[in-house]
Every structure is written in C-alpha cells, then in structure tokens.
Design goal:
The complex is a heterodimer of chains A (167) and B (161). Chain A has 167 residues and is α/β, with parallel strands linked by helices. Chain A is built from eight helices and five strands; from the N terminus they run E-H-E-H-E-H-E-H-H-E-H-H-H. In chain B, the strands form three sheets. Chain B has a five-stranded antiparallel sheet. A four-stranded antiparallel sheet of chain B has the order 2-3-1-6, sandwiched between helices. Chain B has a two-stranded antiparallel sheet with strand order 4-5. The chains are: A alpha/beta (167), B alpha+beta (161).
Chain lengths: 167, 161
C-alpha cells in the first residue's frame, strides 16, 4: 500500500496561498488546506496545486456553497470529511457536524466533486477500519457505494487529469 | 412465561476488540455502549436494541442485540471514544447468530510481557505482546527513535529481560 505524504496548511492568508502551496508541492505528495469563509474557499480551490480542502465542518454558514462545489468539481479538488468529530463530539455539536456533512453530501450528489473520508487519527484509538468509517458516515448518507469509493479517492486526486478540451 | 421457539426473540452477537488493551469489566463496556447508543440514536432506538454484554475475554468481548439492529449497534460501537474515562476505541470484528462462532474467532494467545530493548546502545523499557508487536514506553523516547517497530527491526534487537 503506498504511503503518501501531505502538508496541512492552516490559518493561512489568501495572498500567501500560492507561495506556500508551491513550496509544499516540492516536498510532499499532497497539499491539504484548512477551509475558511466562502471567499477564502473560492480562492483556495482556484489556486493551482491544492489537492484537498479540509475542516469544512468548521466553516461559517454558507462557507462552502454551490459555487465552491462547482469550482471543486471543475478543478478536481477533493473535500475532506473527517470521522473524528462524529466520534468525539456529543449532543448539539455533533448534530451541527452531521447537518453540515449532509449539506456537503447533497452538493456532492449534484456537482460530483471528489470526496475524501479520513480518520484524522493522531492516536491508535482514533484509527477506524473502512467498515467503521462507512457505518459512521451512513448516519449522514445512505449510498454505501459512494462512501466505499470515497475511501480510495486520495490517489485519484493526486493524479487528477482535467477534462479533455478541443484545441 | 415460557414462549414457543417460534415466538422467541432472535438475537445477533457482535465480537468486539477494545484498543488499546485496557482492563475493564463487562459493566464498563455496557455503560460505554449504552451511552453511545443513547446519544447517537436516542432512547427510542436504544429501547428497541436491547444491547447487553455477554462475555469479556481480555480485550475482546461479545455484545448481544436484537436481530435487525446490528448495523445500528456497530455504528454506535464505532462512536465510542472512552471506556470508564480512559480513551479507547471499540472495533467490531464479526457479527454472528451464535456465541459459539464468535468464541472460536477470539485469538487464543493474549497478554503481554514487559522487557527491555536496546537500540543504538541505549536501553528502553518496552511492552512486548505475544503476537510479536513491540511498543516502546513513552519514557525515554527521543525524536530520532522510532516508536513502533516492524518485524524486520525485531531481528536486530537485543532483549534483556
């Protein structure tokens, strides 16, 4: 099984995105960028070299809207959904995350941008098997085939080829 | 009241593994399971599920639920993050209609032993599981020393127990 390295850019200013992503692309296979408000997300998705937009559940309301979804689909940028908030949060906090994930799945169903499901594990007890990941995400979305295929999206995002254009 | 066999409730049994290996009783596992089921699905589903811990063997346990609710129970088990205040994960390994099938799936060799490991001339305390995995203890770890060791590395290690 190939192991890919990635750089996770958090709290970065939009004007520094290109420089940081260019630097990261030299050293790592993938570049993850933490999502912010709608303006930041649009800029981030349109920046060349970004592979995955992560922490979308923490964005403000309409932080990831249908325009961002369209851009992500056109440019092959994946949206990362973590299983960790579903496990660690309780009550209203978890309900908000489930509602946010539901919105993202609805947009994915419409615009078909790539999804990445991850455990975001930093300890051994954070690790989840594919079966458990599918079970937990099936709280939000019923389509098990999409969930199963989303577990292997990372390698596709890395080698994404854009749509064929007539020249 | 004794029911006819056709009228008895059908159950499903789930074999789980608790990671990391912590010493816990069946009531601790039950409390964690019940809390997870209730917070995830609410009291109405929890009352229909009838979860109960049938057997605990080391880090493995068998949990029973009503037939048809096993997927929901597996989801709730995956959402457990602490058992009696200790961070832990519960992995569901197998689902079956009988306890016997699951008992046969429980690995016979369990437990671990303490030892010492010498890496690059320095000695560290280690926990060696009977399945051959070695975990270095937190104490004495430096940044340049690997925390988890593969089977190939174990051939080069010198054990001083």
């Amino acid at each position: 099984m190939p192991v890919l390295t990635a750089r996770y850019l958090t709290n970065i200013q939009p004007r520094l995105l290109s420089r940081e992503i260019g630097r990261s692309a030299m050293e790592h296979d993938l570049v993850y960028v933490q999502a912010g408000d709608a303006g930041f997300n649009r800029t981030a998705i349109q920046t060349t070299g970004i592979h995955v937009l992560t922490d979308v559940q923490n964005t403000p309301k309409d932080g990831f809207d249908r325009y961002c979804a369209q851009l992500a689909a056109d440019r092959g940028v994946a949206i990362d959904l973590s299983v960790r908030p579903l496990v660690e949060l309780r009550d209203v906090a978890r309900q908000k995350v489930i509602r946010k994930y539901e919105e993202i799945f609805t947009l994915q169903n419409r615009y078909e941008f790539p999804l990445v499901l991850s455990s975001h594990a930093s300890e051994i007890w954070h690790l989840k098997s594919p079966r458990e990941m599918i079970r937990l995400f099936s709280l939000v979305f019923d389509d098990e085939d999409l969930l199963r295929s989303s577990l292997g999206t990372v390698s596709q995002v890395k080698n994404w080829v854009g749509p064929v254009r007539e020249v | 009241m004794r029911l006819r066999p056709s009228m008895r409730e059908n159950f499903r049994y789930i074999l789980i593994e608790i990671v990391p290996e912590i010493s816990c009783e069946s009531r601790d596992i039950y409390r964690a399971t019940a809390e997870s089921v209730t917070s995830l699905y609410g009291d109405s589903i929890a009352s229909l599920m009838w979860p109960s811990v049938m057997q605990v063997a080391g880090s493995y346990a068998i949990i029973r639920c009503r037939r048809g609710m096993e997927k929901k129970l597996e989801t709730a088990l995956a959402a457990i993050n602490t058992i009696q205040g200790t961070p832990a994960a519960v992995h569901s390994l197998k689902t079956s209609g009988t306890i016997k099938t699951l008992q046969e799936s429980i690995p016979k060799e369990r437990g671990f032993r303490q030892g010492r490991v010498v890496i690059a001339g320095k000695t560290y305390d280690a926990v060696i599981s009977r399945r051959g995995r070695i975990d270095l203890k937190e104490k004495g770890i430096y940044l340049d020393i690997p925390r988890y060791i593969t089977e190939e590395d174990t051939e080069d290690l010198y054990y001083d127990e």
